[in-house]
C-alpha cells in the first residue's frame, strides 16, 4: 500500500435503489482502480466503502453525486476511516453483512 491510500465510507440517499446504482458504482470504481464494496440498505440508501489512491477515491465520491443515469441523488455523506486493506470491488447483497 502507498501512503496516499485512503478509505471513504459513503452513504447515498435519494432514488438510488432499483436504478442500477450499485452496478454502476462497481463499474465506476473498477474504472478508477478503487477497491471496496457497495450495497443497498433497508432505509433505501446505498452504502459503499472506497479504498485507494486519494485522487481516485475523491473522483469516485464526486461521481456518486450523479450516479447511474436513472438515479436521483439527494445527498452523499462521507466519513473517512483508516484503510482496511480492501481488495477488488464487489456488490454486496442483503445477506452479505
From TrEMBL:
UniProt-listed Pfam families: Acylphosphatase
Active site location: 22, 40
Keywords: Hydrolase
Positions of the Acylphosphatase-like domain: 7-93
Coiled-coil stretches noted in the UniProt entry, renumbered to this chain: none
PROSITE patterns named in the record: ACYLPHOSPHATASE_3
Family annotation (InterPro entries): Acylphosphatase, Acylphosphatase-like_dom, Acylphosphatase-like_dom_sf
Protein name in UniProt: acylphosphatase
